[in-house]
Amino acid sequence: MSLLAYCDIKFCVFRLQLLLQVLVSTLLLLSGTPLRADVSSAMLAMENPANPLFRFTTSRGTLYLELFPAEAPENVANFMALAEGKVTFQDPVSNSSYTPRYYNGMRFHRIIPGFVIQAGSPHYHPLGFPERLLRDEINAGALGLDRLTVLADDGSINPILNITDQDDLTQRILDPLYAQMNINSLEKLKDQQSQVLISLQSLTVMQLYQYEGFSYQSDFPTRGFQRGTVAMANDGPGRNGPEFFITLADTRWLNGRYTIIGRVVEGMEIADSIGSEAVNPATPDPASPYIYAIQRAN
Question: What is Dmax (Cα atoms) for the chain?
């Protein structure tokens, strides 16, 4: 079988799976199966009724997301365009163009119980990556990261960094600091020990993240991570694509590292149900919960 034929079949199978999933979802709705969340109660729970509200129908039930365009306008607009089939994808093999409702039919490929559920990875979509990756839209000052120091008064590591071991300490704090100070040998480290200590004692969390490559803006407000937060996943600073996650607990250590686009306003118990069993993205479970459809509800 030619590569072209294989790719065409792969895409057709994906579309067939999607049609079957939407059909099942429709039958569930027509059968009178009660949903734990509905649009009227979701709208009452919104912070701002002018914000976009999206119905998120999954194999475990329905939840509603309120998006925050005033806080992350580019990333929210991109999420909405992907969900509503307004982004064009080019198949490099068949040279065909598609505008799919990107998230429909995708599975949750990463689930960590008590932490996050994650979906939308281009690695698990037949059309792969969209052309554009977006910058982060994070106001570190609004989060207070410019006032939090990496070291506490007693010399311990600030718990917001969620440093778990010595290797984590070296990779997350010392290596970026050494690079910033142009320390690239043991001899230089020995010569500048006192300067390293002084820099470490005054280093803020915001500065540390900037050393890692994160850049921040002050034009828009930013809120901190809480249970039910919806944010964009990335593979590094300023590389936001279609992948997103929902937090199942308060996760302050994510502040300043991921762009928040919204929150769950109804159906958080559905998110908990999705997050009840772990799924490792390295070996995704074909039976993991999936998304029937994400669509505008207001």
Answer: 74
